[in-house]
TrEMBL record:
This is Uncharacterized protein. The chain crosses the membrane at residues 183-200, 232-252, 264-287. Keywords: Membrane, Transmembrane, Transmembrane helix.
Length: 302
């Protein structure tokens, strides 16, 4: 329950940080989520009750409302700073209203090139060494953008659930550490699939992979990090692949139409199908843990 309460806070701050993209500058966004995290912890008062923490989070409002208020606050602060710098502008100034849209200045890395200057050289007032270095850097960045980095999609999937601004730079490793029971269930499913190709002795009448899968099923049913439908998918996909897929493919591959031929064919293909079904179930559950459905919070997943 302690881990669940902490996870609720991290998920809320992460959603607010996502809503701030495109509306706040990076340094403003980082400062805001840090102050918001401190405010939630202050209102939480050290409580580890997930229900109470969820009620505290609900009192702060939606991420969109929080970002709207922060944008208006920054706009008012910017207007006050301009008035302090230019007292003559106070006569025409008016306070920032709730319906006003704050416009932040465009942040440019370099000055615009002078009229007649070559676009690659930028400002001619820069030293020749800086111009040459900028040209080389632009060419390298362009070449890197043309060829995608290896395992780019896999890294993006692993980081889908970990916003580095909301979690202090932590990534998928932290998500799995904060969901130890879910991680244990995934590990048991993987072990059950990996044990299938080995000829292991049975315990009573039960194969060892089936016993490991049963332990994974009990652990999975006790998890709080997935919805019931996701847990049901994780449990049924390997079994359906083993039973239904094994029967269909075994019947298609059996020769002679005898029961003995069918059982031999079923035994040959069902293990492989169980491994494939387990891999699909583990992939789905890991994806749901890293990137839970939008709008799903701790209240409907406890």
């Amino acid at each position: 329950m302690i881990e669940r309460a902490d996870q609720l806070v991290l998920e809320f701050v992460s959603r607010v940080a996502d809503a701030a993209h495109g509306r706040l500058r990076p340094e403003q966004r980082l400062d805001f989520v840090q102050r918001l995290r401190a405010g939630v912890e202050r209102e939480r008062g050290g409580s580890e009750d997930a229900r109470y923490v969820a009620k505290v989070i609900a009192g702060f409002g939606t991420p969109a409302d929080l970002i709207d208020r922060e944008v208006r606050r920054l706009a008012a602060a910017q207007q006050a700073a301009q008035q302090a710098a230019d007292p003559a502008s106070r006569q025409d100034a008016r306070p920032v209203g709730a319906g006003d849209t704050a416009v932040f200045p465009v942040v440019a890395d370099d000055a615009e090139p002078h009229h007649g200057a070559h676009p690659e050289d930028g400002d001619r007032r820069l030293p020749p060494g800086v111009i040459y270095g900028r040209r080389i850097a632009t060419e390298r960045i362009t070449r890197r953008a043309d060829r995608p980095a290896p395992l780019l999609r896999l890294r993006r999937a692993a980081m889908a659930g970990g916003n580095p601004m909301a979690t202090g730079g932590r990534d998928a490793r932290t998500i799995f550490l904060n969901n130890r029971r879910e991680t244990m269930a995934l590990a048991l499913l993987v072990v059950a699939g990996l044990l299938v190709p080995f000829r292991l002795p049975t315990l009573a009448i039960f194969p060892i992979p089936a016993i490991v899968w049963a332990a994974a099923a009990l652990t999975l049913l006790a998890c709080q990090g997935w919805s019931f439908s996701d847990r049901l998918i994780g449990l049924t996909v390997p079994v359906l692949a083993y039973a239904v897929g094994g029967v269909l493919l075994g019947a298609a591959r059996s020769e002679g139409g005898t029961v003995q031929a069918f059982m031999v064919s079923f035994h040959n293909v069902s293990g492989v199908l169980f491994i494939l079904g387990t891999a699909a179930a583990v992939s789905w559950l890991a994806f749901r843990l890293l990137d839970p459905p939008h709008g799903e919070n701790g209240n409907n997943r406890r």
